[in-house]
Design goal:
Layout lengths: L1 H21 L9 H8 L5 H7 L7 H7 L4 E2 L5 E2 L4 H5 L3 H22 E3 L6 E3 L4 H18 L10 H20 L13 H13 L14 E5 L6 E4 L3 E5 H6 L3 H16 L2 H8 L1 H11 L6 H9 L6 H17 L7 H10 L7 H6 L4 H9 L1 H14 L10
Parallel strand pairs: 5-7
Antiparallel strand pairs: 1-2, 3-4, 6-7
Helix pairs in contact: 7-14, 8-11, 11-15, 13-14, 15-19, 16-18
The structure holds zinc ion (ZN).
Length: 392
Amino acid sequence: MAWYRRSKLGFDAISSYFTSKLTSPKSTIRNSNQLSKLTCSAYYPLKVSKVSVDRSLNSRLYATSNRYYYVDSRQVRHFKPRGYRRWFDNPKNVFIAVLVGFGIGLTVYFGNVETIPYTKRRHLVLLSKNLERTIGESRFKNMKVGLKGKILHAMHPESVRVRLISKDIIEALQRGLKKEQGKNEVLNDMWVDQSREKGKEKGGKSATGHLEGLNWEVLIVNDHVVNAFCLPGGKIVVFTGLLEHFRTDEEIATIIGHEVAHAVARHAAEQITKNLWFTIGQLILYQFVMPDLVNTMSNLLLKLPFSRRMEIEADYIGLLLMASAGYDPRVAPKVFEKLGQVSGDSALRDYLSTHPSGKRRSKLLSEASVMHEAVAIYREAMVGREIDGFFL
Ligand SMILES: [Zn+2]
């Protein structure tokens, strides 16, 4: 409710400003109506005292509407503010307010902090699972309408192919969510390593509730744009422009695995939480022109770019997913390098604006211990052994 109080204060200040315009020193009082406007001004107490000679006309207004001073029963003026301002004059009250605020903050934080599967990073997500899902589904629905005529038929060979690869990845994800792996691997990337160690020490359970009962859908859009994403709620969208640049199944599996990993780690909901003030501001602005709250939210919020840390996280989780699905994870670094090489291509800009790629990312991924882990999973998958619980 802090934002509400702030906007209320802002509104009070603006209304006071306009009221003060009405009661400039040159103006004369013509009727009691004007007098009431003048006495309501919060920022011109001296002017009020000038006109207070007419107190007999409206003594009740004089005694009750000025915020800067008031007259007590002995007709003594007090310049102390009244109401909540007066309440905050007492340091004890301020201390209590800070303490209560801190307590609420802690409750909200610990009530909404979650552990991401595999990396064990703990992040704050204020968006409920249902709202996140609704936002994703709403955006997907809007996209279907917006891209009408461009969506490939479900039986189109490209549609069938991408859908089968996505199916492999999703099944690998569902197997991977079954149980926790006992191994305690060491990774090259410091923060992932530390985060996993810490997570295991604390015994924190990874948050996977948002992945249960999802109705996964795959949409292939016939457009030269090189882009792909996975909306919350299990909605995968791939543009044919991407398929033109990345032709092998392994390459497509790398991209889909990475996008699905963003959904696994609830990165969109985390971004929304991080940009809460921006979000609220935008919503207040937009609600005057777009009353449909969920549509507005989904259109605005799912455009927020992910951070570099989130990208690395999605790379790692995606690598394990593709390996478990039976796609060689050693292809992944080459895919990200290729994405970096073709960065001059304007069609790629959409994807690269949110997915920084290049040699560095490729090198990091190929050197990380997660690659050894992924290759081991891939080999087991290839000999037909069931892989489960690999990243919890
Ligand atoms: Zn990404």
